[in-house]
Design brief:
Layout (H helix, E strand, L loop, with lengths): L2 H23 L6 E7 L4 H14 L3 E7 L2 H9 L5 E4 L5 H9 L4 E15 L7 E2 L1 H9 L16 E5 L4 H10 L10 E3 L2 H9 L4 E6 L10 E2 L1 E2 L6 H6 L5 E9 L5 H11 L1 H9 L3 E2 L2
Parallel strand pairs: 1-2, 1-3, 5-10, 6-7, 6-8
Antiparallel strand pairs: 3-11, 4-8, 4-9, 4-11, 4-12
Helix pairs in contact: 9-10
């Protein structure tokens, strides 16, 4: 290597280091990070809260990932996130894993929700009973004609097993009976909406927050009760539940606590309602 080439290389390296140092010193990116993983049902509430919270706390960066309640809780137990969103309570085995690892997990209810069965708008069916829903999902009711609809097969759309919505549906509606094997499995509420909106023969179920007025799906009454905020808050709607955030108190940062407190406060609970859910307070 020539002295001239060597000198030029060193010069370029020094300039790069100097510029790198300059931009690093001038970096105005947030210094504190909060990582949230888990339920897609809790996702709309979380996104709204993040958007509002970053206006108040500009020095906090919050990332969120909708990967299912089970995956979120696993990530929390593994130390891969600060908050686990969940549309179901922690399972016994998850609590045991936390205890075994000496983790102090705190359960925080942030909203109420309803699970609403949905169909294509062209479907004449407007209501079903919980027993009929169970019959559809276990495969005993296979045609819309059996329910007063068209002589067409029912395409069953369900959530994957890592979903808290699936877990609640499995226990509350299915009474722990397995969903039929040929059901179409989707990874999120949004995917359920898309699938049902594109198939007049399909039925699915979603969190109430995903049931929009301008949506291409139709929410059904269950046991003659309409899925409304008032019916969810009173418990009259037959498929109602709480939505949670889980944290590890032993490693809970001020930034994490600040965000949770914000969501539970007056402003945060207004955002819960704006997202289509029912405030916990």
């Amino acid at each position: 290597m020539s002295v001239k080439f060597f000198s030029r290389t060193v010069l370029v390296a020094l300039v790069a280091l100097t510029l790198g140092f300059f931009f690093a010193c001038g970096d105005s990116s947030p210094k504190t990070k909060v990582v949230i993983k888990g339920s897609t049902t809790v996702l709309p509430v979380t996104l709204k809260a993040i958007e509002s919270y970053k206006k108040v706390k500009k020095d906090v960066a919050i990332s969120v990932e909708g990967s299912g309640s089970g995956n979120g809780i696993k990530a929390l137990l593994d130390g891969a996130c600060d908050i686990a969103n969940s549309s179901r309570a922690m399972k016994k085995e998850e609590k045991e894993s936390a205890e075994k690892a000496s983790l102090k997990i705190r359960e925080i209810a942030v909203a109420y929700d309803m699970i609403v069965p949905i169909v294509h708008p062209s479907n004449p069916i407007t209501k079903l009973t919980k027993d009929q829903l169970k019959g559809i999902y276990e495969g005993n009711i296979t045609s819309w004609k059996q329910l007063g609809g068209a002589d067409e097969p029912i395409i069953v759309v369900s959530r994957d097993t890592s979903s808290g919505t699936y877990e609640y549906w499995h226990e509350d509606v299915m009474k722990k009976t397995d969903v039929k094997k040929d059901a179409l499995t989707q990874a999120s509420n949004g995917a359920i909406v898309t699938t049902v909106a594109g198939n007049p023969k399909a039925i699915g179920y979603i969190g109430f927050g995903y049931l929009k007025k301008d949506s291409n799906v139709k929410g059904l009454l269950v046991n003659d009760v309409e899925p409304t905020i008032d019916h969810g808050k009173s418990g009259k709607y037959p498929i109602s539940r709480k939505l949670f955030m889980y944290v590890n108190e032993a490693k809970m940062s001020d930034a994490t606590k600040g965000f949770v407190d914000y969501l539970l406060g007056d402003e945060g609970q207004k955002l819960v309602a704006e997202a289509g859910f029912i405030p916990i307070k």
